[in-house]
Amino acid sequence: MEDGRFSERLKAATWQAHGEAEQHGFTRALLDGALPVDGYAAMTAQHYFAYTALEEVGRALADDPVAGPFVDPALFRVEALERDLALLYGPGWAQEIAPTPPTATYTARIRQMADHPAGYVAHHYTRYMGDVSGGQFIRKVAATAYGLADGAGTAFYDFSALGSLPRFKDAYRARLDALDLDETARRSVIRETGLAYQLNTEVLADLGRRHAAGLAA
């Protein structure tokens, strides 16, 4: 059974969850330039744990016929996050940060995808496509709100190694459309993508309680 391009099905099926993440109070405070810098730093720290898990699993699945085509070292974010954390927390950043309980749940689920390559694609899509798209606006807002110049503290959002971002996103959607999955597996990917959005929203909700209470409802 085929209901149009899989990339379009995936986008449509998760549009509401995507919108909820964008409209979350923490995200709104960030996009409005109203989030305190400690909230931005804390978000960066939680990204570090999520992307460490995502890229560890990606390397393990690099030769997998389903997940492998999505594993692109030009997308890897951990080294950029380390540079950002060194600026935001100082040289001892690794001793200053820890995963929150929602992040621990999120990263545990990502690591489970080492045995479920199609599920890994769901988490890969949720994170990287979101950051390649909306992350460019966040980069500009953060640079202005926190006085970050010359890419310092916003390296995470620098995807210049990908070249043209519109072309990259078109190619990514083509890879989704080319996935050799039956209808049951495709529905499973859609469900896992919805879960990935939910887990990420729970991370944001926790960050909002800690760092943005009262700033945005």
What does this structure look like?
By secondary structure, this protein is an all-alpha fold. Helices cover 67% and strands 0% of the residues. It is built from 11 helices and no strands. It has helices at residues 6-13, 15-23, 25-31, 37-60, 78-89, 93-96, 101-112, 117-133, 135-145, 165-177, 183-211. It is globular, with a radius of gyration of 17 Å. The model has no long low-confidence stretch (mean pLDDT 92).
Task: Quickly describe the structure.
By secondary structure, this protein is mostly helical.
Please name the defining characteristics of this protein.
mainly alpha, 11 helices, 0% strand
Write the layout of secondary structure elements.
Layout: H1 6-13, H2 15-23, H3 25-31, H4 37-60, H5 78-89, H6 93-96, H7 101-112, H8 117-133, H9 135-145, H10 165-177, H11 183-211
Helix pairs in contact: 1-11, 2-11, 4-5, 4-7, 4-11, 7-11, 8-11
Helix coverage percent of residues?
55-70%
Tally of individual helices: 11
Our estimate of the beta-strand percent is: under 5%
- Overall, the morphology is globular
Indicate the structural class: mainly alpha
C-alpha-based Rg, rounded = 17 Å
What's the helix-strand series?
HHHHHHHHHHH
Distance between the termini: 42 Å
Based on DSSP secondary structure assignment, what is the total number of beta strands? 0
Average pLDDT metric: 92
Low-confidence stretches: none
The largest sheet, given as strand count, sense and whether it forms a barrel, is: none
